[in-house]
Amino acid sequence: MTDLTEKLIEELKLGSKHAQQEMLSLYGESVWRQVTMVIVQQEDAEEVYQDVFLKAFKAIGSYRQEQASLATWLGRIAYNESLNAVWKRKPPIVYVDDRDVDLESMQDDTIATLQETDEETIELIERALDFLPPAEQAIITMFYYDNQSIKDIAYITDSNISTVCSKLSRIRKKLYRIIKNIQ
Fold it and tell me: Which of the chain's termini has less CB crowding within 10 Å, N or C?
């Protein structure tokens, strides 16, 4: 941890408004991105975003640098607050049910064909993400959009590393099927 981060944490523990503004400045964009991948309504996303930082400011005393970076710790709060908001509101969620699909028969190299970076493929992937449940959207967002490590995602989601790896593999396969159905 850098000296600046340590100083920021100490000032946050003292309730410094300047430190709170600094935290918003440093981490606001990534928290917003994570929240809006799960919460689609602008007003609801703004409320959750505020809740994330209010909770972080109140709980900064429980932050342990040996467990995770400050960004990862905030990500965990954002993840949990976003999912809690979705579960409280109980909106209709449309997603592809994969219970009757043999996921093991799909090869990872088949999924590699989706790695084209043209705009059409990116648009298809973004449309396909809408069909995933919020928890799966959050994991994909953390890994691909926020470039978070498997270890950090495991911390954020309170999961084992192997569980996150399995979920990512399963979600990729599900996205592949969704994209094929969209096309």
Answer: C
Domains (range + CATH), the chain: 3-89 (1.10.1740.10), 103-182 (1.10.10.10)
Tokens linked to 85: 């908001």
Concatenated DSSP letters for 58-96?
A: HHGGG--TTT--HHHHHHHHHHHHHHHHHHHH-------
- pLDDT tens column, 21-54: 999 999 999 999 989 888 888 888 999 999 999 9
The answer to whether residues 111 and 176 touch, using CB atoms and an 8 Å cutoff, is: yes
Q: Where are the alpha helices (DSSP H) in 90-160?
A: 108-111, 119-129, 134-140, 150-157
Size of the chain, expressed as the number of residues it contains: 183
